[in-house]
Amino acid sequence: MNAPTAPPSLLAALRPRQQDRLYDFYRDLRESGELFWDRTLNAWIATGHDVVSSTAGDPRFSSVRYPDLAAVSAELRPLAAVLSRQMLYSDAPDHTRLRSLLSRAFTPRAVAALSERIAGAVDLVLARAEPTGRLDVVADLARPLPLEVICDLLGVPEADRAALSAWSDPIAAAIGSSRLDAEESLAASRAMEQTLDYLRGVLTRDDGPPAPHTLRALLSAGAEDSGRDFDELLANCALLLVAGHETTTHFIGNAVLALLQHPRAADQLRARPELIPGAVEELLRYDSPVQLMLRRARHDLDLAGHAVAAGQAVLLVCGAANRDPAVFPAPDRLDFHRPAGRHVAFGYGPHFCLGAALARLEGAIVLEALLTRLPDWRLDGPAPTWQRSLNFRGLTGLEIAFTPTPARP
Which DSSP category does 275 fall into? Predict the structure, then answer.
């Protein structure tokens, strides 16, 4: 009798051939069980929707990513120290306090007020592209747009935004990888240091009162009102910059690729733009920009019939949960009439993505503009390739072609 085959490691998802068939790979993992031990990563892997969503908000688990900074490599330790002060990797009461302050910039009213700014930025990009008949959706649109919005919120001058974008890349690579070499770790730590130094200057400059809608205004008031640790506030501004930038960029790129690969679905949205809000949810489910959440057991406990020891990590695979057929019938099909609200693309529980409403708004505006103004779009250029990351799923580029139109006078 043959011994049972151990499930493959989640780390195999980094292989290029697995990235191209990622959701088939997740299906294979899920067949090993909705929760299993990954010996390579020394962590539990959760793939089923029920265990992912329930664990994400379970108070028996901690969101702390680096419980022992002394165990982190010297090159990565400066970055880890900053991440440990961010609300994404903190628990109540610190998480509750920080989220309460930063959420003021993401109220429904505040997000709605950004609609015109986002639409104007998209219009400028498409107006430049339309006479050429070509567009790299990632480089020309999906990458700069969310950066513009986040930098507007932070009060960052336009001339400085390219530098912030460059600094965010190694930081995102470190967040998205479980295995960095010394050079990559050092680059990420240096990039974080540069980001914090820059944000400190922006948020403390004395050139008149900040615009009331900016995070600079909110954070200045918050620091003055409560005497909060300013370095903690800076760390969380860096989180908004990197996470808000990376996730929305990847969402837009992934969504456009899915529509290019499903032309009937794209035609359906062109004919019925009222379906776009539901399509945004379905596209988030279909190919999520964030693939993982990490939780750590606070004490010995039972999870999905398995004994999880105190301190053990549980990697919640959002991408696998969003293709769980027990919750999403025919999960590999794009269905814009699918009931919304059950996917975990924005996380779940207390750490649900603070900028979810903003990402949805940006995605809806971009999709409607592209579908309306580029009716005969098609893939062109090199085959799309995926960034090498376990956490973030996004394209390195997405070149499309379409019938050129005359430049506007």
Answer: G
pLDDT tens per residue, range 297-355: 999 999 999 999 999 999 999 999 999 999 999 999 999 999 876 899 999 889 899 89
Tell how strand 43-46 and strand 313-317 pair up: parallel
Residue whose structure tokens are 């191209």: 20
Residues sharing a CB contact under 8 Å with residue 71, sequence separation 6 or more, in sequence order: none
pTM: 0.92
Query: Using H for helix, E for strand and C for coil, what is the string for 216-227?
Result: HHHHHHHHHHHC
Report how far residue 184's alpha carbon sits from residue 5's, in angstroms, rounded to the nearest whole number: 34
Distance CA 71, CA 315 (A): 19
Q: pLDDT digits over 27-48, tens only? A: 999 988 899 999 999 999 999 9
Q: Give the tokens for residue 159.
A: 């001339």
Q: And the tokens for 253?
A: 């790129």
pLDDT above 60 for 224? no
Residue 45 backbone dihedrals phi, psi, to 5 degrees? -115, 120
Q: Longest C-alpha distance within the chain, in Å? A: 77
The CA-CA-CA angle for residues 187, 188, 193, to 5°, reads 95
Q: Beta partners for 135?
A: 400
**Amino acid at position 82, single letter:** V
- Rounded alpha-carbon distances, angstroms, from residue 285 to 282, 323, 334: 5, 8, 9
pLDDT in the model for residue 220: 57
